[in-house]
Amino acid sequence: MSHPAKTFANIVLYTVLILFSIVTIIPFFWLVCGALKSQADYFTFMFLPLGEGFLGVAWDRLTLENFGSLFTELNFATNITNSIFLASSISILGTTCAAFGGYALSKFQFPGRTAITGLVLSALIIPGPLLIAPGYQLLYHLGLINSYAGIILPSIAPAFGLFLFRQAMLNSVPQELLEAARIDGCGEFRIFFSVVMPIVRPMMGAFLMITFLGAWNNYIGPQIILQDPDKFPLSVAIAQLRGLYQTNYGMISAGTLVSIAPVMIIFLLLQKEFISGLTSGAVKG
Amino acid sequence: MAAKYRTHSLWVPYVFLAPFLLVFSTFVIYPLLQSVVLATQQTFGPGFSEFVFLDNFKNLLGDPIFWIATRNTFVYAAASVVLLLPLSLSLAMMLNRPSMKGRGFFRLIFFSPALVGAVFVGVIFGVIFQKRTGLLNNILYRLIGFDLDFPWIQDPRFVMPALIIASLWMWVGFNMIYFLAALQNVDKQLEEAATIDGANSWQKFIHVTVPAIRPIASFVVLLSIIGAFQLFELPWMLLNQGPGPERSGLTIVMNLYQTGFQTGDLGYASAIGWVLALILVFLALFQRRMSRSEET
Fold first, then answer.
1. What is the pTM of this model?
2. Cross-chain residue pair A135–B27, CB shorter than 8 Å
3. Closest residue in A to B271 (Cα–Cα)
4. What angle do CA B80, B82, B87 make, to 5 degrees?
5. Tell me: the pLDDT tens digits for B6-26?
6. Closest approach of chain B CAs to the CA of A265, in angstroms?
7. Among A150, A247, B1, B5, which has the highest number of CB atoms less than 10 A from its own CB?
8. What is the dihedral of CA A184, A189, A193, A194, to 10 degrees?
9. B112-126: string of b/e by CB count within 10 Å (b at 16+)?
């Protein structure tokens, strides 16, 4: 390609990418602006209220009252705590179960191994929604409706996770290392925590993040199982807020922002680990 | 092999497997079996049921609401594949150019919506698509004088396009990540050889890029279709916790949820779940067959 043609192609390329970036970011920016505006300014200005201030924005008209209402009129502090608790327990327990199971299936020979592996692999095809109705009935008979156990327990045996850890450990954990540790008199759990875990730590981190995010964003489970508003995580609380405050867009924006911003910031900071975890299943599998 | 020189006790693997298997059999395998039983029952809440054998499936076939849900879901799934994947792949190819500057920056931006849960995306776009006050109509009005009162989510004809726009925003960057990973498999030397032989960009794309990314591309297609068929939260929140005008945003899983938890018939809901499962198994087998026949 000649030089001017190459420059032109580059200009087109970057223009397209920048346009796409703007389209991606605008809803976030609009959400932030909406959360910071008073109810009156919300309908008057598309983004920030215009005025005499720096960059032509009336900064002094911005308000935190929408955020205040979340914590006074509603019970958002409790909802945040609930979301943190649910997502942390599900991700930690789920990752532990999956890593333990993957270790057993990849590094030991024992009767039943093939059958169990096949069973778990074929479970990957089961669509989650199929289990909603019978799962609810089971929780009802176990007396776990309106309890956190009813949300956590069904979420901590991720077949996909077990499969990921099995694949990873098959290739990356040398059998000789395990044998050597056994000869040295190392206990089985110590072998797992001090020999196996360090090797698969990146995958554990990635899977922790994937399950945390999944649990944080889960709506249908808590919506069906929980009845007590004090137990609602943010996903259910925001649905309730949307139903109650139909046109109070400022408060809806603030509530959504509080629900997504902290998680987004943490995950964007850790995006390398997260993304490598997401794609490892596809690339290796 | 390890089996010949076993130095650990027999029970060790079972102990490591126990937590997973215990939870898995209670909360996955048991409900799965129970869903077969439930599908032959009519229930009134979780406690009362009546055996109806195959009536649920018979009724489903003649249930206009279920057919609306199925049609909507198929339309959405088709749009996901036809619009989402080419868009994701083109973005990935733009970012993959060797001279590309700011790759990390663009990747970060495009990927960020995937971190927002479907519930929250539904709420955000429910507000974006509002008449008069919504962001989309306001921007289009200022740019091209578009109708400020355009009824994106009030008119049944525009609900599906609105839903697809929201879902594109959410998923394009996520799928792009997979394609970026796939493009690492493209053989640079083969690409150069094709250039020297006088292949144009399109020929290079078809004969060099596509074969190299095919395994991951077919995985992404399957993932997108499976996701599309399980669509629920996004339209549910977008349409203010309902199926939208004239059920234009009703999906199979929304139908399942409303049947099971608003009408209280867990049996009929399980039958819907089984139809969904069968559709997905069929699509997965079809996709496997396709990717096999392409290999040979």
1. 0.91
2. yes
3. A130
4. 85
5. 567 888 999 999 999 999 999
6. 9
7. A150
8. -10
9. bbbbbbbbbbbbbbb
The answer to whether the Cβ–Cβ distance between A21 and B110 falls below 8 Å is yes
Distance CA A13, CA A10 (A): 5
Instruction: Take residue B85 and report the two structure tokens written for it.
Output: 């994947």
pLDDT band per the 50, 70, 90 thresholds, residue B3: very low
| Most distant CA atoms of chain B, gap in Å | 78
Annotation: CATH topology of A69-284: MetI-like fold (1.10.3720)
The domain spanning residue B108 has which CATH number? Answer: 1.10.3720.10
In a domain, B43, yes or no: no
Instruction: Report, in angstroms and rounded to the nearest whole number, the Rg of chain A calculated over CA atoms.
Output: 25
> How many Å apart are CA A97 and CA A147, to the nearest integer?
21
Q: Spell out which residues of chain B touch residue A141, defining contact as CB-CB under 8 Å.
A: 46
In a domain, B56, yes or no: no
Q: Is residue B40 part of a domain?
A: no
- Provide the number of structural domains found in chain B: 1
First to last CA, chain A: 39
CA B137, CA B117: separation in Å to the nearest integer? 24
Closest residue to A133, CB basis, from B8, B97, B260: B260
Which residues span the domain enclosing B68? 63-295
Q: Whole-number mean pLDDT of chain A? A: 90
How far is residue B26's CA from residue B152's CA, in Å, rounded to a whole number?
44
Q: Strand pairing partners for B51?
A: B41
Q: What is the DSSP letter of A59?
A: G
Out of A98, A263, A279, name the one closest to residue B181 (CB): A279
The kind and range of the H/E element at B35 are helix B30-39
Neighbours of A95 (CB within 10 A): 24
- Of B236, B113, B124, which Cα lies nearest the Cα of B175? B113
Cα nearest neighbour of B118 on chain A: A217
